[in-house]
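sorry for the late reply, my laptop died twice this morning and i had to redo everyting from scratch. anyway the thing you sent over, i finally got around to it. pasting the sequence first so we're on the same page, its 132 residues, then the predicted structure underneath. double check i copied it right bc i was rushing
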Amino acid sequence: MPSGPLRRALRAAGHHRSALVQVGKEGVSAAVIRQLAQALLDHELVKVKVGTESPEDRFEAAARLAEGSGAQLAQILGRTLLLYRRHPKAPRFEPLSREEEAAAEAEAPTPRARRTARPAARRGAPARRRPR
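ok and here's the structure:
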């Protein structure tokens, strides 16, 4: 379970989102967990809708989904679950630690050197003005 202020921020951010993953009559299967894991990697915060025909109740489904995907449960509201897993490289809700920032900077490509010289054809030519 995330900390209080983080949970509050996650619930606020998740309020306007629509459900990306649905649990149907098959219940929580390996395919649903794979789909949730991909959605968490893409979005970091995902709403899951547990259908009424699901063989598991919402609490069992929440526990299995959180355990199977490595996510944390931020909220259960009716048959809707809000799951959160921090993005490994670019988290939106939690800052990176100093060690993680250093590792991310080491992996990032260096920016290209800017070209300061003007093209050869334009050297020495007066600047053009646009007609009005």
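The chain has a mean pLDDT of 83.
thats about all i looked at so far, will dig more tmrw
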